[in-house]
Amino acid sequence: MSLRTKKIIVGFFATLLTLVFTIAALIYAITFHPKPIQAAAVTCPADTPTLTAGQSVKVLNYNVQYFAGKDYVFYYDVADEAGPDTRPSPEAISKTFDDIAALIRQENPDVLLLQEVHEGAKATDYENQTERLLSLIGDQYPCYSEAFYWQAKFVPHPSIMGSVGMKLVTLSKYKLQSAQRYQLTKMDSDPVTKAFNLKRAILTTEMPVQGGEPLIAMNTHLDAFSQGMDTMDRQVAEVATLLEATQQPWFIGGDFNLLPPDQYTALPDHQQIWYNPETEIAPLVRQYPSIPSMANVSGSDRERWFTHYPNDPLVKGPDRTIDYIFYDSRLTLEDSSVIQDEAITLSDHLPVTAVFTLPEAN
Questions:
Q1: What is the pTM of this model?
Q2: Is residue 362 part of a domain?
């Protein structure tokens, strides 16, 4: 081989290596890389009232589906990403904001745990949806914290081709003292896909309690579309580990994307593909009380406790439970419900509510 040929080959590989490193650096620069545990910002005026030991606290847990409403079949809603819709219209978003704000005012919870709230996403016109919601209900909820679990300046997916931004948001009528974001196991895939993919998390917020221990409010949204992997087992185990390590009274709400035991066989065949026959949520429901309870979801009125109405056009109404609030035994459950009729057109999920009584003063 001549010296000239060797120089050409070396030059080619040097150029190729430079290109690979450039692309890798670009992907890193436009995607989201949270730490395993990191502080989350809290907005809370100094004069916000503080919880008091022994008082009741109403919690509303809700996947708001980025305020899109229920008139769409998004590309990810059916198998093979064959759904026709890639975004909601601005008009649908505006109507859904108004309707969800009205629902929140009607239910009047003390703490709101929201999932799938957008910020900076092309599909919802780059809007900060927390700010828009606060413009409608902020007079009641002065305190909030939030944590991204999907963020990228550009996602080269045919149905996205632009920026994404999705958050957990916790809002409160009462003082929030601090907040942290805990990274959950990421779905296994090649490095490029993993960089652009969702990075599921738990958002914890500490609420001081006059005369008692602080109350820890947790908010999460576990993975979906992970059949054939151990992602859900690992995420549930991480949730359980955090709950076991929490010394203060706590509750956690979210979209867990997991069926309760024995609900799998009740689904139509084409919907079973989204779940495993042996539900990964079993360790949590065995160890902690929940809303809906396992008695609720297996009883004669189990339909009242369905929390999910898929956008799949073959599904004609709510038909499964995948959203829950788990809670510490030191909290006393006074009331609970799934809001169905009033919320049936607002999201593919239905709000779960719980009223707890805090422990009495020490």
A1: 0.95
A2: no
pLDDT tens readout for residues 254-289:
999 999 998 999 999 889 989 999 999 999 999 999
Backbone angles phi, psi at 175, to 5 degrees: -60, 135
pLDDT digit string (tens) for 52-84?
A: 999 999 999 999 999 999 999 999 999 888 899
Q: Domain range for residue 261?
A: 35-357
Closest by CA to 345, choosing from 89, 128, 95, 171, is 95
| Pairing of β 332-338 and β 111-118 | unpaired
CATH code, domain with 125: 3.60.10.10
Encoded amino acid at 170, one letter: T
Rounded CA separation 97/347 (Å) = 11
Specify if 231 maps to a domain: yes
Quick one: which of 147, 335, 165 has its CA closest to 254?
A: 147
In a domain, 125, yes or no: yes
Q: Enumerate the β-bridge partners of residue 150.
A: 166
Type of residue numbered 226: S
Residue 203 within a domain: yes
Beta strand 143-155 with 37-39 is: unpaired
Examine the domain organization and report whether 22 and 86 are in the same domain.
Answer: no
Query: Do 12 and 115 fall into the same domain?
Result: no
CA 354 to each of CA 106, 108, 210, 319: distance values in angstroms, whole numbers, following the listed order:
15, 12, 21, 21
Beta carbons of 200 and 239 less than 8 angstroms apart: no
116 in the same domain as 9? no
What are the phi and psi torsion angles at 117 (to 5°)? -95, 130
